[in-house]
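User: Hey, quick favor. My workstation is busy. Could you predict this chain's structure for me?
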Amino acid sequence: MIKREINQFRKALEDQLESLGVPPNKSNGLVVETTADAIEDAQSRSLRELAVHVMNADWSLRRAIEAALERIETGEYGECEDCGDPITSSRLRAVPWAPKCVACQQETEDNHVVETSAKR
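Assistant: No problem, here it is.
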């Protein structure tokens, strides 16, 4: 991968990281309040669960972006972490934080589905 291309990916990753904003603290202002109304309690619980889900997704994305930036610094960016083959530029344009080539990512997802199914 040429230096100009890597710099473009670095910029895209940094922009994405910046768009996530300042990392929230652990609770992110989540407050557990109970009321006498069961419907309000259920709504509050659903909103808290959604907020936690969004926080977890943001943290996961942040970690993936930071890992990609680290791979740029170490010279490993664009190499699949499983097989070592190059990750295509088209994949990196779509998902610049991708640590795996399409084939290895698909295998990981297939294995996850099999493991999840086996647990049921």
